[in-house]
Design brief:
Mean pLDDT: 85
Number of helices: 7
Shape: elongated
Order of helices and strands: HHHHHHH
Length: 150
């Protein structure tokens, strides 16, 4: 066999694997290619693609299975969509309130970080967290300092 014949056999094997994947996949090959190459336009489409990706990953028989090529391509489309989404910013005061409520912490429990009056002003948005306070909260709640910096 020459190199060209070897390439044709390999291409035939890939085509066969793709065909088998499309057969296993509940949709058609056209749908499969659409999911892998077309950008995601909405959150509903994001959810649909994630479900297809999970389904394809479950089909994989081994780590070199062709279905993982499709699943990874869908993953790339999901990542592209998520990268263009703007995440809302949550004010530090709201983060602090949420943490305190979730852990049943009172203002006086944070007295080693700042006086209770300062904690109250921070929670009411009348004051911003300074770097020392951010470090104190980070240590207390076991979170990164950046979580408490606006």
């Amino acid at each position: 066999m020459n190199a060209q014949q070897d390439e044709m056999v390999a291409l035939g094997q890939v085509a066969s694997a793709i065909s088998a994947t499309a057969t296993e996949f509940a949709g058609t090959a056209v749908e499969l290619f659409h999911y892998t190459y077309t950008p995601i336009q909405s959150e509903k489409e994001l959810i649909d693609r994630a479900a297809v990706m999970d389904y394809l990953m479950d089909l994989a028989q081994h780590e070199n299975d062709i279905v993982l090529v499709f699943a990874n391509a869908i993953s790339d489309r999901i990542e592209e969509f998520e990268n263009q989404m703007e995440m809302p910013t949550v004010p530090v005061a709201d983060k602090l309130k949420m943490l305190m409520k979730a852990r049943s912490i009172k203002q006086k429990d944070l007295a080693n970080i700042a006086p209770q009056s300062v904690i109250s002003e921070l929670l009411n948005g009348k004051r911003t967290v300074n770097l020392n306070q951010a470090k104190g909260f980070a240590g207390y709640f076991n979170l990164p300092v950046s979580y408490f910096v606006e």
